[in-house]
Specification:
Layout lengths: L12 E5 L4 H12 L3 E6 L2 H13 L4 E6 L8 H12 L4 E4 L7 H6 L1 H29 L3 E5 L12 H21 L5 E7 L20 H11 L6 E4 L3 H10 L2 H6 L3
Parallel strand pairs: 1-2, 1-4, 2-3, 4-5, 5-6, 6-7
Helix pairs in contact: 1-2, 1-7, 3-5, 5-6
Length: about 260
């Protein structure tokens, strides 16, 4: 299904929840080149302002910012209504924030595990559900959510983070099913390892590591067309298909 395009003569309006993330910034640059109106939401006021200024230079008709802790308890529906008022409406919503956390710490400290789950699933789910209600009420628009290939199968290196992303995947797929034949669309984009501030400190070598710009191109296309689940880059669909179906004895011997 293809989302309904903005009316002739009207620029596309994008809200980015997690506007300072590497993938979000790269995606916003694509929208800016299209002349979109963009609202970036996040915690880092100075960083948001710098990105917004850059987007304006790159062609954005308008680049606004809103400072908010997206993981903190809030009335997401009211907040989205405020964002819509700022832009004069919303066409696309990108949910792009999250934390990787420390798996070893999360395994021994319930509070650390709870933090990973709260940020990556609980709060994200609240924003997704509020966004779904807004888009369904207006009858058009796209909700694009960044998931992760880590949600496809529990791995010893990051299973708490993966559990949160698995839950988010089920939620967004359910929203996509809810939207069927109603006009809006919902898409979960599952990136593989990406070279962003979130993965600093890791050994980031090999063909499986993507640049934010590579993932951003997938995110932008997903907002307009395609199925409810998209892998970024594309080859991760086949890598994860193999991993999902590996017998447990073999999977357990892998250092992943």
């Amino acid at each position: 299904m293809t989302t309904i395009a903005p009316a002739a003569g009207r620029r596309l309006r994008l809200v980015v929840l997690g506007g300072t993330s590497g993938i979000a910034e790269a995606t916003a640059r694509i929208y800016a080149a299209e002349g979109a109106e963009i609202l970036l939401v996040g915690r880092q006021e100075n960083r948001l302002a710098a990105i917004a200024a850059d987007l304006t230079v790159r062609g954005a008709a308008r680049a606004e910012t809103a400072v908010a802790d997206l993981a903190a308890p809030t009335d997401a529906a009211a907040a989205l209504a405020g964002f819509a008022a700022t832009l004069g409406g919303i066409d696309h919503i990108l949910v792009a924030y999250g934390i990787l956390g420390d798996q070893a710490e999360a395994a021994r400290d319930p509070a650390a595990a709870e933090r990973i789950l709260a940020v990556n699933f609980n709060s994200a789910a609240a924003w997704c559900l509020a966004a779904a209600n807004l888009l369904e009420a207006q009858g058009h628009g796209s909700l694009v959510v960044l998931g992760s290939v880590a949600g496809d199968r529990g791995r010893r290196q990051n299973f708490v983070y993966g559990a949160a992303k698995a839950g988010l995947a089920a939620l967004v797929e359910g929203i996509a099913h809810r939207f069927a034949a109603k006009g809006p669309r919902a898409v979960l984009v599952k990136p593989g390892p990406t070279i962003t501030p979130m993965t600093e400190g890791m050994v980031r070598k090999g063909f499986t590591w993507a640049k934010p710009e590579d993932v951003a191109a997938v995110v932008r296309r997903a907002a307009d067309k395609g199925g409810p689940v998209v892998y970024a880059p594309w080859f991760w669909r086949y890598i994860m298909l193999i991993i999902r179906f590996l017998p447990a004895p073999i999977f357990n011997r892998l250092d992943i």
